[in-house]
Amino acid sequence: MTNGIDRVQRARLEAARLRPLFETVVTSEGCGYAKPDPRIIHAALDDLGVSPGEALYVGDDPAVDAQAAARAGVAFCWVDRGQGPARGRRPRRRVTHLLELEDLLARR
Q1: Spans of all domains in the chain
Q2: Domain 6-107 superfamily per CATH
Q3: I need a labelling partner for 76 at 20 to 30 A (CA). Which of 1, 8, 69, 99 fits?
């Protein structure tokens, strides 16, 4: 799920050979809603057949992504790349590397 141009985001996933790893790709252009509007998250959840309570939204913007997750009723985990939160509070769930998600999900 990204606030981005559909063809650009899909091309990036293809170039990185990551596209086969995703069951769905939701872009703001494709669904008509941009974060922090919760409808972009609901579009992804609908595509996956998952309820908000079953999901964890992992994002790198502790303001916009966390706000979108909260509005959608989805738990949020911030990927902290060392810049610190630019605005607002530091999210409760935090990882510094995506590999840490495995442990976080096992504890959930």
Answers
A1: 6-107
A2: HAD superfamily/HAD-like (3.40.50.1000)
A3: 8
Q: Residues 57, 36: contact at Cβ < 8 Å?
A: no
The two structure tokens encoding residue 40: 């972009």
Mean pLDDT (whole number) for 5-29: 95
CA atoms of 104 and 108, how far apart (whole Å): 6
36 token code pair? 């922090």
pTM: 0.86
Residue partners of 39: CB distance under 8 A and separation at least 6 = 31, 32, 33
Supply the DSSP symbol for 27.
B
Q: Distance between CA atoms of 28 and 30, rounded to whole angstroms?
A: 5
Per residue, what are the HEC states of 9-29?
HHHHHHHCCCHHHCCCCCEHH
